[in-house]
Design goal:
Elements lengths: L2 H17 L5 H15 L4 H19 L6 H14 L6 E3 L1 H12 L1 E4 L2 E6 L2 E7 L4 H5 L6 E5 L2 E2 L5 H8 L6 E7 L7 E6 L1 E4 L3 E7 L2 E6 L6 H16 L6 E5 L8 H9 L6 E6 L7 E4 L11 E5 L6 H11 L3 E5 L7 E9 L2 E11 L15 E2 L22 H19 L3
Parallel strand pairs: 11-12, 12-15, 15-16, 16-19
Antiparallel strand pairs: 1-18, 2-9, 3-4, 5-6, 5-7, 7-8, 10-11, 13-14, 13-18, 17-18
Helix pairs in contact: 1-3, 2-3, 3-4, 9-10
């Protein structure tokens, strides 16, 4: 939105809301007609703003039902932004807060990571130390109600919102667990939760597994901690291969994606962006040093891998630092900027399109894996030791492990 249009809208909407009721339809029509006649010769942008103001006033005064002024203005903003592309949107106070939680990784709730699997809201992972984990809720449990309100599988976000709330407040969950005939009831107390976006597991024989669920401000730091733990757990074994699982990772903070890719690359371009304003035009390069010192790496992706996940996968693929295994990614090659508007609202606006290091635009096409592997059951994904899906039942992960095992043997056998 240009500055002139923004200023005109603010002024005209203010006039509309302040004087609309005082003007009769006849007087208002005459006024807007005269105003439009004057601005045609000066600034077409202001003419368009006047048209928006007139529509707002018509709805405010003549729509069959009375509509709150705030709702009218929010609807106008929502219409302007959402019509641009599928990733730009108006954020009300609740949605803006959800974005803040997603990027910061901090919220108040019970610490459950849930996903819609087979039409059921299923627990992916209870966060370590959070109320849900302490109470004994397990991966694979199916949430059927929150505070006696049945779960609507068509609106998982509503279920998640009911789990959150002020620290110290109670919440009750009913879950169904395999092997039980009746739902299990858990009485929990909400507390501050720090989301861990990175989990790691040492698989033995020098092989390690890293899962990134999202890209938050803390993801690079969480990755450092997970790698240190993997190195400690490997003991005397040398770390020979790593699987980096980005399946179902919808993305997140651009800077976090750049810093994660940087940890696997010692030099070279990571990502570049182009846009209309200076901040939207950028190039991000790797710094010297590789966190894993060149350990063979395979990146797992699927159709749910998007945005920041594609930046990491694309950079590692273009630099031949990792092989990509799985399915073609989502194809979101654009960057959104969140711009606060006041009263807890904001707009999320597409401001840049990015390219991988080789100059590829993946917008709408996604990243093609080096090795295509389809999971017959999209929900058959490994969630860690003790989870409902074994490692061997996850065909994509099993193939990735086979590949890094081969790569690690080849590297070990190579002459110094």
């Amino acid at each position: 939105m240009t500055l002139s249009l923004r200023g005109a809208l603010v002024l005209l909407i203010g006039v509309v809301l302040g004087l609309g009721l005082a003007l009769s339809t006849t007087v208002w029509t005459a006024l807007t007609t005269r105003h439009q006649t004057q601005v045609v010769a000066t600034d077409p942008t202001i003419e368009s703003a006047a048209m928006i103001a007139e529509v707002i006033d018509r709805v405010r005064r003549e729509y069959v039902d009375r509509v709150d002024d705030k709702r009218i203005v929010e609807a106008a903003i929502r219409g302007i932004v959402s019509d641009l592309d599928q990733h730009s949107s108006f954020l009300n106070a609740e949605q803006y807060e959800a974005i803040r939680i997603t990027t910061s990784g901090n919220y108040t709730g019970i610490g459950l990571d849930v996903n819609l699997e087979g039409g059921k809201v299923t627990v992916v992972n209870p966060l370590d130390g959070a109320p849900a984990a302490r109470a004994g809720i397990l991966p694979g449990d199916v949430v059927v109600s929150v505070d006696n309100v049945p779960v609507d599988e068509k609106d998982v976000s509503a279920t998640v919102a009911r789990m959150r709330g002020a620290p110290g407040t109670p919440v009750t969950l009913d879950v169904v667990r395999d092997g039980t005939h009746e739902p299990l009831r858990f009485a929990l107390t909400r507390s501050s939760v720090q989301v861990k976006s990175v989990t790691g597991e040492y698989l033995g024989n020098g092989l390690a597994y890293l899962k990134l669920s999202s890209f938050t401000d803390s993801t690079p730091r969480d990755l450092d901690a997970a790698v240190r733990e993997l190195l400690a757990n490997s003991g005397a074994d040398k770390l020979l291969g790593v699987v980096l699982d980005l399946r179902g990772n919808p993305g997140g903070v651009l800077d976090a994606a750049v810093r994660v890719a940087d940890k696997f690359l010692a030099d070279g371009l990571i990502v570049s962006g182009s846009g209309r304003v200076q901040q939207a035009r950028f190039e991000q390069f790797a710094h010297p040093g590789d966190l894993l010192e060149g350990v063979p790496t395979v990146v797992l992706v699927n159709r749910g891998s998007a945005s920041a996940s594609e930046i990491v996968a694309g950079a590692l693929q273009d630099h031949h630092r990792a092989r990509i295994v799985g399915e073609t990614t989502y194809g979101k090659g654009s960057v959104q900027t969140v711009m606060p508007l006041g009263e807890g609202t904001a707009i999320k606006l597409t401001t840049s399109r990015y390219l991988t290091p080789s100059g590829r635009s993946i917008n709408g096409s996604g990243i093609e894996p080096d090795v295509v592997v389809h999971n017959a059951d999209a929900n058959a994904q490994y969630r860690g030791a003790g989870g409902p899906v074994s490692l061997r039942d996850d065909s994509q992960l099993f193939e990735a492990i086979r590949l890094i095992s081969y790569d690690s043997i080849a590297q070990t056998a190579a002459p110094p």
